[in-house]
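Please decode residue identities from the backbone states below.
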């Protein structure tokens, strides 16, 4: 174990010791930060209390994904593992509070937070869970967990592995910390050839690297196919069709462009409807968005209102989604989609769900972290817009020109179809580690 890894373990040990004392100073008890600290602090106790759910029949796989996007990739591979070999036991962990709802629905015997990556804690977690394989997702390989797993003879792998050019993991300190962890991995399932080359530069072994594609595409396709037209959050929109813009995972920076753009689109497209799902639908954000849209002339309701009272053609024409977990099926009620994150520095959210729902996709210029966004642009299934005027023009064209819209929709759906199968490929390779 190198000095940097030792320092990492010491840092997490310190954080673990002081986190409960400072959590109450950091904000409301239900804030994401406090929920995360509390969840990680209680994670080991939860795992130990849940181990009686593990029967010992078949191989045991611990799958970790930091947040929702990675969790969806992981779920596709978990489902493929179960189809290929039913007798596997799955432990799923996450890091972000955003993934709490996803974890609750994960097809796993145990699902919860990842404990702090401190030596004592992770050693005890491995002793409690006794996995045969530890699987990380996308980029997040925890140094202490990967090292202690290797010391116990537990196989380790990384699925959906992708590394944007701008990733902080390419910095000098991150490379020093993560180099041993990547080198230990017995399998790395890269999304693209470019990702393969970048992980090789960070210390991964060439024999461990293989290009598999993105299992998130399988997940998005499955969720679009599984959308229930009779679901209370979907049925009202299908029963009262209208030219509909679905704006998903938006931030205030996206909304500052979208709302005035749609004001121009309304002059060109009679009867337009907006369904907007903020990335963080807190009561404060929902209320602020409600006020902004109402001031701009929209008849506004929340999704909860629509579920309770239905929808008529002269009813609300702007619906604010006031909870998480329903965006993927809502895309199937859309005509075109805007994906949020492209107008600020945190990165673009997933374009896979609207593409899987056969929608043309529009987003802001800051999408360089998203391989799928670039691929959709190249195919003609998406458009990058830098400002209000460009967004209004693109949305108006797709909403009024059926041929242009159909061409873009076919390109989006074609991208999804062409890239299916990564989850099963990854699952088959992981089973080789167990066999």
């Amino acid at each position: 174990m190198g000095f940097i890894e030792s320092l990492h373990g010491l840092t997490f040990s310190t954080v673990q010791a002081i986190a409960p004392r400072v959590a109450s100073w950091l904000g409301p008890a239900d804030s994401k930060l406090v929920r995360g600290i509390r969840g990680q602090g209680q994670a080991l106790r939860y795992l130990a209390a849940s181990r009686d759910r593990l029967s010992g029949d078949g191989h045991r796989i611990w799958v970790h994904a930091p947040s929702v996007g990675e969790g969806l990739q992981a779920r596709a591979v978990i489902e493929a593992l179960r189809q290929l070999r039913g007798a596997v036991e799955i432990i799923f962990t996450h890091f972000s509070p955003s993934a709490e709802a996803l974890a609750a629905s994960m097809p796993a015997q145990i699902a919860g937070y990842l404990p702090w990556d401190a030596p004592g804690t992770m050693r005890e977690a491995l002793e409690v869970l006794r996995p045969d394989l530890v699987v990380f997702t996308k980029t997040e390989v925890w140094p202490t967990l990967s090292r202690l797993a290797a010391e116990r003879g537990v196989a380790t792998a990384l699925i959906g592995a992708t590394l944007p050019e701008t990733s902080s993991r390419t910095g000098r300190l991150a490379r020093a910390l993560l180099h041993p962890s990547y080198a230990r991995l017995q399998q790395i399932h890269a999304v693209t050839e470019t990702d393969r080359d970048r992980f090789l530069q960070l210390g991964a072994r060439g024999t461990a690297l293989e290009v598999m594609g993105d299992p998130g595409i399988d997940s998005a396709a499955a969720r679009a196919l599984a959308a229930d037209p009779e679901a209370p959050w979907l049925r009202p929109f299908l029963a009262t069709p209208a030219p509909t813009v679905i704006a998903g995972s938006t931030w205030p920076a996206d909304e500052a462009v979208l709302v005035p753009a749609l004001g121009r689109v309304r002059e060109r497209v009679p009867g337009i409807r907006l369904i907007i799902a903020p990335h963080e639908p807190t009561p404060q954000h929902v209320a602020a968005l409600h006020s902004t849209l109402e001031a701009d002339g929209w008849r506004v309701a929340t999704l909860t209102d629509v579920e309770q009272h239905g929808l008529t053609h002269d009813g609300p024409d702007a619906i604010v989604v006031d909870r998480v977990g329903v965006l993927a099926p809502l895309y199937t009620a859309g005509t075109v989609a805007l994906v949020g994150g492209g107008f600020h520095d945190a990165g673009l959210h997933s374009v896979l769900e609207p593409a899987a729902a056969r929608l043309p996709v529009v987003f802001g210029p800051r999408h360089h972290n998203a391989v799928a966004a670039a691929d959709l642009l190249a195919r003609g299934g998406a458009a990058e817009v830098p400002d209000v005027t460009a967004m209004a023009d693109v949305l108006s064209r797709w909403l009024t020109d059926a041929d242009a819209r159909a061409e873009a929709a076919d390109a989006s759906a074609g991208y999804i179809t062409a890239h299916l199968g990564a989850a099963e490929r990854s699952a088959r390779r992981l089973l080789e580690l167990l066999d």
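Observation: The mean pLDDT is 91.
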